[in-house]
Amino acid sequence: MKVWRIVPKKTFVVPCTEKKSIQIKEIRVNPSTEEYWVYTTSDTATVTTTEIQARVAEVLAIHGKLEIHHTQPEGNSIDDNPVEGMEELQSIATFDNTPNIGEYDIPHEDYYDLVHKENEDIYDEAYWNACKVVKQSSKQVKADEQHTSDVLLGKAITAEPTAINEVLGEEDNKVVLKGKVVKVDFREFKSKRILLTFQMADKTNGVSGKRFFEISNQTNGKFKRRNSLTQGMYDSLKAQFVVGAHVLVSGSMQYDEYEKDYLLNVEDIMLVEDDAVEREDKHPTPRVELHLHTVMSDMDALITVKDLIKTVKKWRHPAVAVTDHGVVQSFPLLQEISQDKSNQVKVIYGMEGYLFDEHIDQSYHIIILAKNQIGIRNLYKIVSISHLKYIYRGRPRIPRKVLNEYREGLILGTACEAGELIRSMVQKKLPYAELKKIASWYDYLEIQPISNNEFLLREGYVKDEEALRQINRTILRLGDDLGKLTVATGDAHFLNPEDKIYREILMTGKGFKDAQYQPDLYFRTTDEMLEEFAYLGEDRAKEVVITNTNKINDMIEAVRPIPKETLYFPKIPGSSDALKNMCYTKAHQVYGNPLPEIVTARLEEEFTSILGNGFGVLYYIAHKLVKHSHDDGYLVGSRGSVGSSFVATMADITEVNPLPPHYVCPYCQYSEFFTHGEVGGGFDLPDKVCPHCGTVLHKDGHNIPFAIFLGFDGDKVPDIDLNFSGEYHPKAHKYTEELFGKDNVFRAGTIGAVKDKTAYGYVMKWAEAKNITVNEAYINSLVSGCTGVKNTTGQHPGGVMVIPRDMDVHHFTPVQYPANKKDCGIITTHFDYHSIEGRLVKLDILGHDDPTVIRLLEDWTGVNARDIPFDDPQTMSLFSSTDALGLTAEELGSPVGSLGIPEFGTSFVRKMLVDTRPKTFSELVRISGFSHGTDVWLNNAQDLITSGTVPLKEAVSTRDDIMNYLIQHGIAPKTSFKVMENVRKGKGIDKVNKVGEKTTNYENELKEGNIPAWFIDSCKKIGYLFPRAHAVAYVMMAFRIAWFKINYPLAYYAAYFSIRAKAFKLSAMIHGLETQKHVMKTIAAKGNAASKIEQDLYSALELAVEMSLRGFSFLNVDIQRSHAKHFIICEGKILPPLTAVEGLGENVAEQIVEARNHGLFTSKADLRVRGKVGPTLIELMAEEGCLGGLPDDEQMDLFAM
Which CDD domains did the record assign (predicted)? Predict the structure, then answer.
């Protein structure tokens, strides 16, 4: 064999430990076997061979077999033939050394120094193979290249993989594994080192792995460290090595002391195809599956829409029917994915319903397929009727008469063994004539693989498998006699045979005793189905599997279950004109007539988009809702980006003014605008009097671009979210019914699915039932296979879908009760609201605490909250000190006084306040942005601010900051908008495709525009950014409440404990400061073991302690004076409500107050009778001292006299 040599030109030293190193004299490589021999000298005898071998392999990026040969330190001669069987020793190249070995990867093609150029014979095949092996050792890819091959890390893996189960529990220097990634994390350290940790699993078990590496900025081709990646390689790895990826990896299994387990130290990673996906349908005439379930079949099926469409397309099936149990909730996503240009798959939209005759309790399965658009609408009506009128034990049943009434456009099939036909055959044992009568009602008959019905054999309904085949023969005969098509269906519940384990886990979790007996309900190919029915004979098998299923498909038109993506607006005649008139009227009132140019331009810009796209009615609706709440005395807070719209401000939808900071005179309408970033917000401007009339000027404006709300082109459907008082919330919903009609307003439906935590419980229950031990990686792989399966339905907390008066809801969706609970009185959309909100107007009428707190404070103090100035110095000081409370930081235990203030009361935000010490309203807005964002504060803005790199007023806190900053620094508005959109969604500055390649060049534009590096780096770290309009609205409410905290403390604390406190304990609260501190200390000592109720009580006690320190205290609950649910001011103290008594609920409290309104209670007996209070609760209240000495009854009281 030929062995080639590589010799360093200079001394080349490799550090092995902190104080020990070795010198590499020569490297030899056998290209055919990828064997390496490294000749070294060591400067100390204490370095072990294992240490040297590990370090040399790392530094030289050697992945093959490595042997270390030692020579004398002072000697240079090396045995020319230490390798047995070596034919010849020739040089490939020499390579330079460098003073800093840590920066290089050896060898590298750029450093080849060919030594035999005069002898062309040296360039034989062995030479080039040797060069190739050496080149593969260097994993360097130039920084300006993207690593887009199947090799994600290291080199290509050619060895066959071993089952994971075979490598667990012992060390192994070289393993190759294949599986699915179930967990992955890239942890980036400030040192620019990165730790990749992951878990992967195959069918046998799971394994955890790790790899340290760092990002190198070198692009000059010099040697890089083995554990060094270019930015391009890292981006590619991060984009493709994700949960769900199927990979081939190589590395070594080693025991990890920290994890106390054997981990895979990964060296090479390749993307590979999923073995399961390799199943193909090669039949020249594919079948059509007419009975299949997706994850929308409640806790029963595992097929995702995406995987289904991908498989159907790959198999060339003409169509596929989706027939979930009792629901049609997969339809929106089916339409979206199947009609995508890259797919174009025909879907037959159907359902497996529960048929019953009203005089008989028993229900049967039935397949209902929609053959045209009429059928879709009728199917929706059937779904609504079954969910609203005929829910039985959680199952939506369909009366036969309803199915007959809405049968137009529908095709009915006999379904599975749970269908009427087979049940009549197997359980009722009806004669053939009766079976024929039953079958005649259906449009086609179904037969299924006998493995689907094996439980009939286990349960004793049939004696053998031949009896199962005979059932199918009988159905085929019925079809022949009735002239009806008989089709073979699979009743597929999972995609591939190996997926049955996930259904077993789900059913075990649900408590099924026979979950381990899973039938083969996988999606079969044409040949697999033909094999299942071979006993019918070749021709008949082909007829039921291929011919007849295609005939059914031919009867069915391509339909759209969801209308085209056009917004169907509710109609309010004259709404657009009314909106425009009210806005200009308000603008003239505030800014004068003629309007300032900046105001006119903003209104015209917005109205062009709003009215041009038909959005005027949405604004008008929001105006009507807010006005209705204001008229009833409740403020409304805006959410989201609606405050970005000046039209919304002028229509009184929001208090947030998005114009640049400005002064405006409330008397003569003089105005002065600041358009170059001179000030963070209008509320920060110093007080000033009008130069024309001497009136104190009003200050406003938060500099929020309109594009934040409706997009750069102004054509994005406005999402107007409003925070109503929690007390007023139901009235707001009722008012929408008055506006649009009860039959046109439905709550926005949601669909819940199995999450990781729930799936984890199912997996552990399954493992316990099977008495097996599984490791974390394998558990997570099983968890991933069970998540996403529908397990309930619900409702958006405030979302309302509005149907135009001239349309029926079934044009868009069926309707139902949330979670099928008909006693809740709420009807929701059957489809998840996200899937139809692009077609229907969704009003977000949310309940919120702040408006309720403000209403209580206004009622108790007589102060109009809208008159509170947003630059009040004392109020502002609460966010940077405790002085305004009359307490020291040491007394309060906090350097700031924002405890209990919404947005600023949590320990996390209080630490932000300590770091930033805000002095202006706009800085409070920034802090709100930091706290609501993801990866905006920690390891980002916090470091920039505390290090003095940038001031608080410049750090990126909200999405608007990016657009404003870039435009102010000369970047084109559209680029600024696009960058903002990417960053706010956590996508970085440039868009990146699925293999990590940049598809835009915005970062270079920013660099060329001299945008500072700190700004660019900050943007690249962000995961989510809050809109400034939302932050402003929140801070306005918070600032008002903070003002009350200083100026009306008793009212503030009473409102806090009435609305915001989630827990209250009389014995802990009413006995003063020391008791309060003692209880807090007891809870704190429990640490993470403290219950949720204890944690909530701790938060409430923090406010109670503050209140006590300020000289205020609680009274005890008083049966004769306490409010039902609100804390009230009484005798200069705070009187807790009746609900503060443990175990006394709101309904009982209301009963007590209602009885008390007709006369004070005279005895415990009176309280029991008139207040309808049980004796146990009465005794508890007596023990707590809440009854004020009430006698047991009137007779005892008279006797005492």
Answer: PHP_PolIIIA_POLC
Beta strand segments in 611-696, E: 637-638, 662-664, 671-673
Alpha carbon 359 to its chain's center: 46
Fold of 1048-1200: DNA polymerase; domain 1 (1.10.150)
pLDDT confidence of residue 1199: 45
Give CA separation, 256 vs 15, 251, 265, 442, 481, in Å.
Answer: 23, 14, 10, 64, 71
Q: How far apart, in whole angstroms, are the C-alpha atoms of residue 180 and residue 197?
A: 14
Cβ atoms of residues 231 and 143 within 8 Å: yes
3-class DSSP state of 568: strand
Pairing of strands 485-488, 444-447: parallel
Coil vs helix vs strand at 961? helix
Give the DSSP per-residue string, 844-883. EEEEEHHHHHHHHHHHHH---GGGS-TT-HHHHHTTT-SG
Burial of 23 (0-12, 13-18, 19+ CB in 10 A): middle
Sign of CA dihedral 1083, 1088, 1089, 1090: positive
Distance from C-alpha of 270 to C-alpha of 155, rounded to nearest angstrom: 8
Domain 278-555 identical in fold to domain 745-845: no
CATH number of 278-555: 3.20.20.140
Rounded distance, CA 1201 to CA 1199, Å?
A: 5
CA nearest neighbour of 956 among 890, 885, 891, 1016: 1016
pLDDT in tens, 599-638: 999 999 999 999 998 889 999 999 999 999 999 999 898 7
Q: Helix 776-786 crosses helix 500-509 at what angle (to 10 degrees)?
A: 90
| In the block, residue with structure tokens 């991060």 | 238
State whether CATH 3.20.20.70 applies to domain 151-273.
Answer: no
Long-range contacts: 625-630, Cβ < 8 Å, 24+? 625/722, 625/732, 625/735, 625/736, 625/843, 625/845, 626/652, 626/653, 626/722, 627/652, 628/731, 628/732, 628/735, 629/724, 629/725, 629/728, 629/732, 629/851
Distance (Å, rounded) from C-alpha 805 to C-alpha 745? 10
CA dihedral 545→551→552→557, nearest 10 degrees, is 140
pLDDT in tens, 1025-1069: 999 999 999 999 999 999 999 999 999 999 999 999 999 999 999
Pairing of β 1128-1130 and β 1133-1135 = antiparallel
DSSP letters spanning 899-941: TT-TTT-SHHHHHHHHHH---SHHHHHHHHHHHHSBSSIIIII
Domain 850-1045: CATH superfamily, name plus number: PolC, middle finger domain (1.10.150.700)
Which has the closest alpha carbon to 734: 845, 829, 631?
Answer: 845
- The pTM of this model reads 0.80
3-state secondary structure of 14: strand
Q: Where are the domains of the chain?
A: 2-137, 151-273, 278-555, 575-723, 745-845, 850-1045, 1048-1200
In this predicted structure, the answer to whether residue 77 has a pLDDT above a threshold of 80 is: no
Contact 482, 439 (CB under 8 A): yes
Please give the helix or strand (H or E) that residue 95 lies within, else none: strand 88-95
Angle at 436 between CA 430 and CA 439, to 5 degrees: 105
Compute the distance between CA of residue 296 and CA of residue 749 in angstroms, rounded to an integer. 14
Which pair of structure tokens corresponds to residue 867? 């008159």
Cα–Cα distance measured from residue 264 to residue 241, given in angstroms and rounded to the nearest whole number? 16
The answer to whether 870 and 1036 have CB atoms below 8 angstroms apart is yes
Give CA–CA dist 659/647, Å, rounded.
11
> Which fold does the domain 745-845 belong to in CATH?
glyoxalase-related enzyme like fold (3.30.1900)
